[in-house]
């Protein structure tokens, strides 16, 4: 049995957020679902350290944080390929690591993908809102956006000795994302549908956890009559009047007024969460064969 | 008789849409159906989003539409055949329409060719229904506005709309639950918080509620704001 561990944040990284599997259930009141952008990777990290699948993890974006461990800790990290060092020695992803007290745990750049997930064994002392510690806002989840000097407290109640390292199929971000017809798909002209399949889209640098804006725009030959606003979900593909496609992601609002021409297949959303701002992607009709996956959710 | 249809919304969701036009009765159908589904949920239902003319149901795994459609058809028809005329809570919300708080009131008065007094009276001339919630947690889309008050959104959104601002755009009116950017025309402000993340139930409104606005003086605005701050505000006064 080990008592609680504490991690002192020496460097917060570019954007490091506490995430879990989100707060489904209050969307009728306008609350975004939120949660990890790559849910499978978050759940996998937790599995490797013996935590429940929906326990909090740290979502590390493009450039990771640095911690000083006050006590021994059991960790694992997954998702986008990230540089990681324990006291200067490189450590491997997708397996459990037992780190002694006073260790320095440093993450560097995310080399492939966009987001890596750090699980730490034990019960996280995080402020939850509506059942989830996932970052939402300064007023609701003030401690979930990791900042310099912050102390993360985790009380360990169920130590496990060892877990089996796993090997995952290589994450292939070049593989097209499956596009299903959305409620307003019929507004697209045949030419626009062809453009969907033929275009290599770039994810605009302004894209974030709320949504990815894609370039170039579709050619707009039509003007849509204003739509009565309706529900949107993570994965919904909206078409703006200028012809820009917006793919809504985990922190998207719950309603919107742009035509919902498509939806990215739910099994492809985790991989989409690994496409970084400035990255490219292609979309395809769902008849394209899905990638081989190892689902744990 | 209105018609309805069930449409797929990706591999894990569907939406149930009732035919237009948008009015209280059509929107009430959505809330009544959502209440009925919450009482007797469908298998693997993750969450729902009732909106103006449709109810979106999201499942926690991929769905096979035909069997769910079959389960839903009877329940939808049942709600259509037995509409409930009044639905949700009834709330009276105090609003101060003083131009110090109703930042766009004077400009809007000119634009709509209504005196400020007339505009304010029209805004209170009826109760509004919470058609849907979205944009921000706790933001209620209230409708439908009298025709004379219908105006497109502002050309350039404000970068910081104060919390509690009461605003209008298109067919609807609403209250900003927290300070945020916003493109609606601000005509007043309520001292009553409609959202507080620390409440056990953080939302004053729920979809389907009925809301009546009542004008108050600037002095009462300050008084109520003070009462809210020191926790002496009588919340029951909203439900009278």
Short description:
Chain A is mainly beta.
Features:
heterodimer; A: 297 residues; mainly beta; ten-stranded antiparallel beta sheet; eight-stranded mixed beta sheet; 3 helices; 33% strand; B: 240 residues; alpha+beta; seven-stranded mixed beta sheet; four-stranded antiparallel beta sheet
Number of separate strands of chain B: 13
**Residue-averaged pLDDT of chain A:** 93
Extract low-pLDDT stretches of chain B. Answer: none
Q: Tell me how many strands of chain A there are.
A: 20
Q: Tally the helices of chain B.
A: 5
Number of helices of chain A: 3
Order of helices and strands of chain A: EEHEEEEEEEEEHEEEEEEEHEE
Strand order of the largest sheet of chain B: 5-13-6-7-10-9-12
In percent, how helical is the residue content of chain A? under 10%
Estimate the strand proportion of chain A.
25-35%
| Shape category of chain A | elongated
Shape of chain B: globular
**CA radius of gyration of chain A:** 20 Å
- The Rg value of chain B, from CA coordinates, equals 19 Å
- Distance between termini of chain A? 29 Å
Structural overview:
The complex is a heterodimer of chains A (297) and B (240). By secondary structure, chain A is mainly β. Chain A contains three helices and 20 strands. In chain A, the strands form three sheets. In chain A, strands 1, 2, 3, 4, 5, 6, 7, 8, 9 and 10 form a ten-stranded antiparallel β-sheet that branches. In chain A, a hairpin with a 2-residue loop joins strand 5 (73-86) and strand 6. The two termini of chain A are 29 Å apart. The model of chain A has no long low-confidence stretch (mean pLDDT 93). Chain B has helices at residues 24-39, 65-81, 105-112, 116-123, 218-229, and strands at residues 4-8, 13-18, 45-50, 54-59, 90-95, 128-133, 140-143, 158-161, 165-169, 172-175, 180-182, 185-189, 210-215. In chain B, a hairpin with a 2-residue loop joins strand 9 (165-169) and strand 10. The longest helix of chain B has 17 residues, at 65-81. The chains are: A mainly beta (297), B alpha+beta (240).
């Amino acid at each position: 049995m080990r008592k609680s561990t504490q991690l002192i944040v020496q460097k917060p990284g570019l954007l490091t957020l506490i995430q879990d599997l989100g707060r489904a259930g209050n969307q009728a009141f306008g609350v975004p679902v939120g949660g990890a952008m790559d849910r499978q990777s978050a759940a996998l990290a937790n599995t490797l350290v013996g935590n429940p699948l929906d326990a909090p993890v740290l979502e590390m974006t493009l450039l990771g944080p640095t911690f000083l461990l006050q006590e021994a800790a059991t960790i694992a990290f997954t998702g986008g390929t990230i540089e990681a060092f324990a006291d200067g020695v490189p450590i491997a992803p997708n397996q459990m690591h037992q780190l002694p007290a006073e260790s320095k745990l440093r993450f560097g750049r995310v080399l492939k993908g966009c987001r890596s997930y750090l699980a730490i064994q034990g019960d996280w002392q995080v402020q939850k809102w509506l059942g989830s510690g996932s970052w939402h806002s300064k007023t609701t989840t003030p401690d979930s956006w990791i900042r310099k000097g912050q102390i993360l407290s985790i009380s360990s109640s169920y130590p496990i000795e060892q877990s089996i390292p796993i090997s995952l199929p290589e994450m292939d971000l070049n593989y097209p994302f499956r596009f299903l017809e959305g409620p307003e798909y019929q507004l697209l002209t045949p030419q626009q549908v062809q453009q969907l399949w033929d275009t290599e889209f770039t994810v605009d640098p302004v894209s974030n956890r709320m949504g990815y804006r894609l370039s170039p725009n579709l050619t707009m030959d039509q003007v849509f009559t204003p739509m009565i606003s309706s529900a949107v979900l993570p994965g919904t593909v909206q078409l703006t009047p200028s012809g820009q496609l917006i793919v809504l992601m985990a922190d998207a609002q719950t309603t919107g007024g742009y035509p919902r021409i498509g939806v990215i297949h739910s099994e492809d959303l985790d991989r989409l969460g690994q496409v970084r701002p400035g990255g490219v992607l292609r979309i395809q009709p769902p008849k394209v064969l899905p990638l081989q996956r190892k689902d744990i959710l | 008789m209105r018609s309805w249809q069930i449409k797929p919304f990706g591999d894990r969701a569907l939406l149930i849409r009732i035919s237009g036009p948008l009015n209280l009765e059509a929107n009430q159908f959505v809330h009544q159906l959502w209440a009925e589904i919450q009482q007797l949920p469908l298998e693997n239902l993750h969450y729902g989003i009732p909106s103006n003319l449709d109810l979106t149901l999201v499942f926690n795994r991929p769905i096979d539409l035909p069997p769910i459609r079959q389960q839903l058809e009877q329940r939808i028809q049942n709600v259509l055949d037995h509409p409930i005329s009044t639905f949700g809570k009834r709330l009276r919300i105090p609003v101060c329409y003083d131009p110090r708080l109703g930042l766009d009131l004077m400009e809007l008065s000119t634009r709509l060719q209504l005196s400020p007094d007339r505009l304010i009276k029209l805004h209170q001339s009826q109760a509004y229904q919470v058609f849907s919630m979205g944009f921000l947690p706790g933001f209620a889309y209230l409708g439908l506005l009298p025709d004379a008050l219908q105006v497109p959104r502002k050309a350039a959104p404000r970068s910081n709309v104060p919390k509690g601002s009461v605003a209008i755009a298109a067919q609807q009116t609403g209250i900003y639950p927290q300070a945020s950017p916003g493109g609606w025309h601000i005509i007043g402000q309520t001292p009553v918080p409609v959202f507080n993340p620390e409440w056990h139930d953080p939302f004053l409104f729920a979809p389907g509620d009925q809301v009546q606005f009542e004008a108050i003086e600037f002095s009462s605005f300050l008084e109520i704001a003070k009462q809210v701050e020191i926790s002496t505000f009588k919340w029951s006064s909203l439900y009278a």
